[in-house]
Task: structure prediction
Amino acid sequence: MEVIKAAVMGIAAAMLALYMKSVRPEYSSMISISAGIFIFGFALICLQKITGSIQTLGEYLAVSPVYIRILLRITGIAYICDFASCICKDAGYQTVASQIEIFSKLTILALGMPILLALLETIHAFLT
Result:
């Protein structure tokens, strides 16, 4: 039911922000950022459930906990950077938003390298 609450909150905030844009434009962005932070709280609840599921899956598959932590970090980085990028776009700073997106992609690539190397080592072991 968090999805319905987040959707209603988002719609109400968007309508209020549109109204405030004509009355007091400086409050419009504050409303949208506040709504984004509120909805981010709902997303954290979902991320906790996902984290538990991924850890359980890792136990069933006998995957190294290091890889599970990397996967969770990548998920967190992707979500946080997307959230920050959207706030910057909403405020009219598309260049900053693009830089955040590039930084997040590079960080995810850097964090994923140990997984890629382990995969390549496994493939190499099968071939030799």
In short: The chain has four helices and no strands. The helical segments are 2-23, 25-61, 65-91, 94-127. The CA atoms of residues 2 and 45 lie 9 Å apart.
